[in-house]
Amino acid sequence: MKLDVNALRYLSKDDFRVLTAVEMGMRNHEIVPTELVNSISSLKHGGTYKVLKNLLKHKLLHHDSSKYDGFRLTYLGYDFLAIKTMVNRGVFVAVGRQIGVGKESDIFEVATEDGTVLAMKLHRLGRVSFRAVKSKRDYLRHRTSYNWLYLSRLAALKEFAFMKALEEHGFPVPHAVDCNRHCVIMSLVQGYPLVQVKQLQNPDMVFERIIGLVVRMAEHGLIHCDFNEFNIMIDDDEKVTMIDFPQMVSMDHRNAQMYFDRDVECIFKFFRKRFNLSFEESPDENDGSEVDTDESGRPRFSSIAKGVGFLDKELAASGFTRKDQEDIEKFIEGGIEKDADSSDEESEDGGRNSDSELNKSDINGVDSLHLLDQQEQTIHCDEEARVEENQENSETGQSQTSVPECPDASDKEEENQTMNNNDAELTKRLRKQNRRVIASVRGGRKSLASRNSYKDKGGSSSRNSKIQKQMSGW
Ligand code: ADP
Ligand code: MG
User: Fold this and answer.
1) Which residue's alpha carbon is nearest to atom 6 within ligand 1?
2) CB 119 within 8 A of CB 187
């Protein structure tokens, strides 16, 4: 998928209003009925039609009329919403080249106003797993209630929360800067993934440091679960930094021992093969903690004294709950069948409310969406003004320095603040439209499908993200 942020420059306030409307509609609909988009965005008559056409042209939305007339966000559309929020918060001002393509993420450089380069990770949960089952049609019938938007957001929130907690406990991880939707901003690690390193001055020491990290994390009650040469960065001074945390689990997990042993095994295997290390002797003290090892020098899971409550207390405090953990685990462990519904922009959509049947929950959803819409609109205008101000006068443009503890909660806070400047006129208008939509939903579905039929000619975009050569700001 191409991330051409230049288009951001040309998107208007109305474009973002409609994009946000589709995002909000997706809380209850896999495909958001056109009528609902119209109603949430509440542009003046016919306004939404033009905007939708523009958003389709930029591939920020996908049009679907297979069951009824509607839209959903593409990854790119979701990227733009997250990027714009970050820019409005003053987290960064420009997006640069792509520096990594993970299994389920794309990583870009971004630059702050003072020229500091950070890393932006855009989560794409469901991408690989969906591809793996794309040809197996049977699976497509067994859809679960998760969609990629929700899962990618959870993955980002989890990664941000874990990175922050690990950092606070002195683990060598990137500095967690901010998080919004499926996007995590962190410090850029100077170095290379261990997989690219052919020689080390001190392989024994690096090895022990790395095994020491696995043990120390376990003592804090955590297992990385994907601890290997791809997720360990190393710099010229052979300093190690761990990355990639969305799959971490607690030491209480039912498969904890298997995950722990697997992480340890990956490191042993890699160092044996790449650096010819032999492990007859037990490793010495690891990072200050003495741990029992078996005859081959591998630390024993059973001998690790677990810290208490690290995962539950600290992570819940940063906004990542046990329920979130369960949801994401279900997806990660759920196997191929369950992955089938996590659609991406090339896929068919998953089944969540995807039928043309608009039921009671849709009607209730309309109410809550309107409320949120009102908040979003106010904040949106506010943010728009701020970003314009920043563009015009970059010296005086305010950079937000405080890092919110919990990204979603802080969004809500912002929204609530702006809600106080309640626009009575807007509320009245929304209520009126709300009633109209509810009436039209109750009165039958035909009207939803009959208006504004669009054709998305560029529906499926190229999978490979193009590396942007130049930093481009806006
Ligand atoms: P995935 O979860 O998709 O595997 P990762 O977090 O492992 O994604 O990132 C993929 C690649 O991107 C890494 O192997 C690394 O090369 C690069 N990368 C990720 N985060 C950073 C960072 N903070 N600084 C520098 N490079 C990074
Ligand atoms: Mg990785």
Assistant:
1) 244
2) yes
Q: Which residues contact 228 (CB under 8 A, 6 or more apart)?
A: 263, 266, 267, 270
Model confidence pLDDT, tens digit, residues 337-361? 333 333 333 333 333 333 222 223 3
Instruction: In whole angstroms, give the CA distance from residue 394 to residue 396.
Output: 6
Give the catalytic positions in this structure: 226
Task: Tell me how far the alpha carbon of residue 56 lies from the centroid of ligand 2, in angstroms.
Answer: 32
User: Residue 244: phi, psi to the nearest 5?
Assistant: 70, 85
pTM of the full predicted structure? 0.70
139 pLDDT above the threshold of 60 = no
Whether the CB of 119 sits within 6 Å of ligand 1: yes
Cα separation of the two ends of the chain = 20
* DSSP for residue 145: S
The pick from 243, 331, 465 for probing ligand 1's pocket by mutation, whose C-beta has the most ligand atoms within 8 angstroms, reads 243
Give the number of other Cβ atoms within 10 Å of residue 90's Cβ: 18
- Torsional sign, CA 406, 409, 412, 417: negative
